[in-house]
């Protein structure tokens, strides 16, 4: 109970925080004057530039002398410095503890491609409304996938991932239902996973596009034993897909038959060093013609082969000594300390060759006019300190041979465009959201200059970079496992698989009851919602219905709930969260 109250306290802090970026936006206009402007469009840099910001947006931008500077403006003198858009990490998997780290490293926006959508929507709104501090969040949380075949099913999946992590698609009807649900909840995009066929991918994509949602696809990153079809990039390029995530599809599309046969027999989906580079051109030509973005996540797969690894190890080691990093939980710091370490020697030559061949594909894609988006896959099982990993990805793009201007676009305008938000932010143009980095050096000379930050402006507000260490309490608790426990019929320990609804508003009608589905439910179950016990009504063997206390439904917040089985053989279920948004 003490642990639950702790998380409730954190949630309430995020709701009532007095820190408000929106309030700051209503203050005097902000002017950034004298810097070399790289606006994110790919246009030539503009020296001696002026950017005028008011009410969170860019009002005017141009060469000094062509832009009127308001008399009451706060001025940032940027002479000798370089001004670029705020960075976008288009592929992350957020946790409670690190959204401030992204912002510290100049990442003003992150795109989450795998989490509970209700939690992400709540966190996104908290940041945008000034109730929590950190990068803006784009939501692609719920993953669309075909159900696992019974022999591959993992009964702990719902327990470990919390509510609504996956939408299982079996036909056009289930696809349409899932698309409409994520649109209603407020997702910004859809992510498809490994087990979908090209035909089903196309069905989902067509439905998503009708709702204005872009679609990302991750496929074939594990092995055939997980039950997915073995697909190549060449097989999905005509589905209408917006973004290919990772490079795994190149293996099926270009590796020798022996590699494919090994994977079909249950081996890992590896074979980068055997990619046939002669097969790249026609795949790239189709991707570019179909306007498909590419999120290659080169650092996630190949960082141990990068010549930049020792440099990033040093940067990371120094960062973990700062007050900013010391505010992280010790377990997180310990894990981050393992980032950017050398890989095993026995695999070095094979990995280097794989990096060379996969890197050639990325370079040729960029040369052909393809749009890369920088995204790191941070906190999806890979080691890597949040925020630093994006700069590593950009440095590896440079190693591959991607021009620096295109690297900047990959982490600014193209990222926002891929997420369907290019009209809102990502470039330094009038009318766009004012997400701006002022750098001490020019990234066109050295892309690592993106880490040499002089000022960060997010949504028109100047960020107190060092002060972010004091904002870590402003979090929205993430759904999922809080305590050890598993469904056990002998002990009558209940387990929650899903709740409905998982997000309501304070003025929503007919939002007085909650349906909880799971296992090991009994007629004696109680449900603890925000420290209030309510009795559940059993429906069959796997469903409880409970009233939502008015103190919860009428007050915006993030409310943990568990199912309780009284008695000496009873126990407490895993924790889910009910999100209540303002009117």
How would you briefly describe this protein structure?
This protein is an alpha/beta fold. Helix content is 30%, strand content 21%. A hairpin with a 2-residue loop joins β22 and β23.
Question: Can you walk me through this structure?
Answer:
With 583 residues, this protein is of the alpha/beta class. Among the domains are: 142-186 and 190-241 and 256-268, Rossmann fold, CATH 3.40.50; 481-581, Immunoglobulins (Immunoglobulin-like), CATH 2.60.40. It is 30% helix and 21% strand. It is built from 20 helices and 28 strands. Strands 11-10-12-13-14-15 form a 6-stranded parallel beta sheet, with helices on one face. Strands 20, 22, 23, 26, 27 and 28 form a 6-stranded mixed beta sheet that branches. Strands 2-6-16-17-18 form a 5-stranded mixed beta sheet. Residues 1-26, 150-163 and 480-490 have low confidence and may be disordered.
Features:
globular, disordered N terminus, alpha/beta, Immunoglobulin-like, six-stranded parallel beta sheet, Rossmann fold, six-stranded mixed beta sheet, 583 residues
* Structure class: alpha/beta
Measured distance between first and last alpha carbons = 30 Å
Which blocks of ≥5 consecutive residues have pLDDT under 50? 1-26, 150-163, 480-490
CATH fold description of the domain at 142-186 and 190-241 and 256-268: Rossmann fold
**Biggest beta sheet attributes:** 6 strands, parallel
Mean pLDDT: 86
Q: Please count the beta strands (DSSP E, at least 2 residues each).
A: 28
In which range does the helix fraction lie? 25-40%
Q: How would you describe the oligomerization state of the chains in this entry? A: single chain
CATH class of the domain at 142-186 and 190-241 and 256-268: Alpha Beta
**Overall outline:** globular
CATH architecture of the domain at 142-186 and 190-241 and 256-268: 3-Layer(aba) Sandwich
How large, in whole angstroms, is the Cα Rg? Answer: 24 Å
Kindly estimate the percentage of residues that lie in beta strands according to DSSP: 15-25%
What is the strand arrangement across the widest sheet? 11-10-12-13-14-15
Tally the helices: 20
């Amino acid at each position: 109970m003490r642990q639950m109250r702790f998380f409730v306290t954190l949630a309430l802090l995020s709701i009532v925080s007095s820190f408000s970026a929106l309030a700051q936006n209503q203050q005097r206009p902000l002017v950034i004057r004298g810097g070399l402007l790289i606006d994110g469009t790919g246009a030539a840099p503009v020296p001696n530039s002026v950017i005028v910001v008011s009410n969170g947006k860019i009002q005017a931008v141009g060469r000094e002398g062509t832009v009127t500077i308001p008399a009451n403006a706060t001025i940032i003198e940027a002479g000798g410095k370089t001004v670029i858009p705020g960075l976008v990490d288009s592929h992350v998997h957020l946790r409670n503890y690190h959204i401030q780290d992204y912002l510290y490293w100049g990442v003003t926006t992150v795109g989450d491609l795998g989490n509970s959508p209700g939690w992400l929507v709540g966190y996104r709104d908290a940041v945008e409304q000034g109730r929590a501090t950190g990068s803006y969040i784009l939501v692609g949380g719920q993953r669309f996938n075909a159900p696992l075949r019974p022999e591959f099913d993992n009964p702990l999946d719902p327990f470990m991932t919390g509510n609504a992590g996956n939408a299982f698609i079996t036909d056009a009807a289930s696809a349409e239902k899932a698309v409409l649900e994520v649109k209603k909840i407020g997702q910004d995009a859809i992510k498809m996973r490994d087990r979908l066929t090209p035909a089903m991918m196309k069905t989902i994509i067509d439905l998503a596009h009708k709702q204005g949602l872009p679609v990302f696809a991750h496929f074939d990153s594990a092995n055939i034993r997980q039950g997915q079809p073995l697909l190549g990039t060449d097989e999905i390029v005509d589905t209408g897909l917006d973004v290919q995530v990772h490079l795994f599809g190149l293996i099926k599309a270009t590796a020798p038959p022996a590699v494919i046969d090994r994977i079909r027999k249950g081996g890992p989906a590896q074979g980068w060093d055997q990619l046939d580079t002669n097969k790249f051109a026609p795949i790239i030509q189709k991707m570019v013609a179909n306007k498909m973005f590419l999120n290659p996540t080169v650092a996630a797969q190949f960082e141990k082969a990068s010549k930049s690894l020792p440099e990033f190890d040093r940067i990371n080691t120094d960062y973990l000594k700062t007050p900013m990093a010391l505010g992280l939980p010790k377990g997180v710091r310990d894990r981050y300390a393992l980032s950017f370490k050398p890989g095993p020697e026995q695999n070095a030559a094979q990995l280097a060759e794989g990096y060379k061949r996969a890197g050639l594909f990325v370079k040729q894609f960029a040369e052909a006019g393809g749009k890369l988006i920088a995204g790191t896959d941070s906190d999806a099982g890979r080691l890597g300190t949040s925020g630093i990993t994006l700069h590593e990805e950009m440095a590896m793009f440079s190693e591959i041979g991607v021009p620096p201007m295109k690297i900047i676009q990959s982490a600014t305008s193209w990222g926002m465009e891929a997420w369907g938000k290019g009209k809102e932010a990502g470039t330094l143009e009038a009318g766009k959201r004012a997400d701006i980095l002022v750098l001490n050096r020019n990234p066109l000379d050295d892309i690592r200059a993106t880490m040499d930050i002089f000022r960060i402006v997010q949504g028109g507000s100047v960020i107190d970079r060092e002060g972010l260490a004091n904002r870590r309490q402003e979090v929205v608790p993430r759904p999922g496992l809080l305590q050890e426990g598993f469904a056990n019929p002998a002990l009558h320990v209940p387990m929650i698989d899903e709740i409905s609804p998982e997000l309501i508003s304070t003025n929503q009608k007919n939002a007085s009851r909650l349906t909880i589905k799971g296992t090991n439910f009994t007629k004696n179950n109680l449900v603890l919602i925000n420290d209030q016990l309510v009795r559940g009504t059993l429906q069959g063997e796997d469903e409880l219905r409970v009233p939502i206390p008015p103190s919860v439904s009428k007050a915006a917040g993030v409310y943990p709930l568990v199912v309780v089985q009284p008695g000496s053989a009873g126990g407490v279920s895993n924790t889910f969260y009910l999100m209540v948004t303002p009117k």
